[in-house]
Amino acid sequence: MPAAQGQRLGTKDMTPADLDAIRSRIQRASAAVRDASGSGYQTSYWASGTDFMTNFRAIGVKAPEQLEDDFLNLFIWTWSLKDYLKSCFVTKGLRANGVEEEVNRCQALTFVADIANRAKHGDLRESRSGEFAELVDVGLNAPQECIESIAIAGPDITLQVKDPQMVKIHATVATRSGGRHDALVVLNEAMECWETKVLSQIAV
């Protein structure tokens, strides 16, 4: 990590430019999870009732693994905004712990915390939400009207997508108690909490 970046996260006071930079990064990450387009991907699997491997290839969309990476990136950056905001609170003469208190009042932010910390550490020993929220069921659904062609040659299936904008993206936040929430809704609600409950306190 360059020294200047490390200072920005540590001892250096936050500036409006620093805050704008991370908000712009979050906006770019948010755009990425809403964009299904990509060079394509391929996978192989045993289809039920067959004795051979099926090779599936999709052209024109991103791989589900890339989509999951994009979602996790957005969760991490949305949660990382907390440290920037705490520094801004200190600069403004406000209690940094006030940011933590607002997080605890916003369920969506506590879900974001769980998922971001699980992604960064590989495991979640403590849960901010108390629900050990995790990101599951990330994928793409291609309706018939967005498919240009489907070619079948023996065990090989190739699907060509003509309009990735019509592909449906899905991702779920699952909780230990059995709750299931649309991941994009959770992320939107989390950003709304940041904007209305925290950023509003330091707006000039």
Tell me about this structure:
The chain is of the alpha+beta class. It has helices at 3-9, 16-33, 64-91, 97-105, 107-121, 183-202, and strands at 41-46, 53-59, 134-141, 147-153, 156-161, 168-174, 180-182. It has a 4-stranded mixed β-sheet, with no helix packed on it. Strands 3-6-7 form a 3-stranded antiparallel β-sheet. The longest helix has 28 residues, at 64-91. The two termini are 31 Å apart. 25% of the residues are buried.
Would you spell out the secondary-structure blueprint of this structure?
Blueprint: H1 3-9, H2 16-33, E1 41-46, E2 53-59, H3 64-91, H4 97-105, H5 107-121, E3 134-141, E4 147-153, E5 156-161, E6 168-174, E7 180-182, H6 183-202
Parallel strand pairs: 2-5
Antiparallel strand pairs: 1-2, 3-6, 4-5, 6-7
Helix pairs in contact: 2-3, 3-4, 3-5, 3-6, 4-6, 5-6
